[in-house]
Design a protein that fits this description.
The structure is a single chain. The chain is about 30% helix and about 30% strand. It contains seven helices and nine strands. A nine-stranded mixed sheet has the order 7-8-6-5-4-3-2-1-9, sandwiched between helices. Strand 3 and strand 4 form a beta hairpin. The radius of gyration is 16 Å and the shape is globular. The longest helix has 16 residues. By secondary structure, the protein is of the alpha+beta class.
C-alpha cells in the first residue's frame, strides 16, 4: 500500500509544530502513561483499560512491523520544540483495497490545542499523496464531539451513524462514520495547507 519511502524508520512527516514519526522503544513510557488514562482508552476501540504492563512495547513492535511491510502507516505525534516525548499516535490502516482507515489518540495534556487537527491533516495529505488511495474512512463515538470536529476540519463528511464493535471494550458502541474521497481532498488542498500550518513535507532524515 505504502511506498518504500514510508517503509524506512527515518521517515517522518513535519508540520509547523509537530513531527509524526515511526514509534521506537524509547517511546514506551510515554505511550504507557497516556494510554493508561481512561479518558483516552474509552474513546477508542482497541486500547485496553486497565492498560497492561508491556502493552506499549507490544504496540511499538506491531506498528513498526506494519510500517516496514507498507501495509499501514502508524506514527507517534511529537512536538517539534520543548519536551520531545510522544504525546499521541495517529495511523492510516489498510482495510479494503485502496481504502484507508484513519485513527488517532492524544494525551489529554495536549487536548484543545489544535494538535490532533494538525496531525490528522498531515497524515491524510500523506495518505493521498504517497498511495493510490480512493477514500479514507473514520469513525468516532457519538459522544466524542472533539474528534468529530477534527474530522470535519480535515474535510471528512458525515456518512451515517451505526453500532460498531469495540474489541477492547467488549461491547458494541454507537459511532458517527465519516469519509473523505480523493476528489474531495483534491478540492480542499488549501484547507490542508492551513491546517498543517506549513507547506507539507515528507522527509527521510535522521532524528
Amino acid at each position: 500500500m505504502f511506498p518504500d519511502l514510508a517503509r524506512d524508520d527515518v521517515f517522518r512527516l513535519e508540520t509547523k509544530r509537530l513531527w509524526l514519526r515511526w514509534p521506537r522503544v524509547a517511546d514506551a513510557p510515554a505511550i504507557q502513561r497516556y494510554s493508561s488514562r481512561w479518558e483516552v482508552a474509552s474513546m477508542t476501540a482497541r486500547i485496553p483499560h486497565p492498560y497492561p504492563e508491556g502493552e506499549a512495547e507490544r504496540f511499538i513492535f506491531v506498528a513498526r512491523e506494519a510500517n516496514a511491510l507498507g501495509r499501514d502507516l502508524i506514527l507517534v505525534i511529537q512536538p517539534v520544540g520543548g519536551n520531545r516525548e510522544a504525546i499521541g499516535m495517529i495511523s492510516l490502516e489498510s482495510r479494503l483495497q485502496d481504502r484507508l482507515t484513519l485513527g488517532y489518540a492524544l494525551s489529554p495534556d495536549a487536548w484543545g490545542k489544535g494538535i490532533a487537527t494538525q496531525a490528522a491533516a498531515a497524515i491524510v495529505e500523506a495518505g493521498f499523496t504517497l498511495a493510490n488511495t480512493v477514500e479514507m474512512l473514520a469513525s468516532v463515538r457519538v459522544e466524542n464531539a472533539a474528534s468529530r470536529r477534527v474530522l470535519e476540519k480535515c474535510g471528512f463528511e458525515h456518512a451515517g451513524t451505526a453500532m460498531q464493535g469495540a474489541p477492547a471494550r467488549g461491547y458494541m458502541v454507537k459511532c458517527d462514520q465519516f469519509r473523505l474521497t480523493r476528489p474531495a481532498w483534491q478540492g480542499q488542498r488549501a484547507l490542508f495547507a492551513a491546517a498543517i500550518g506549513a507547506p507539507f513535507e515528507t522527509q527521510r532524515v535522521g532524528l
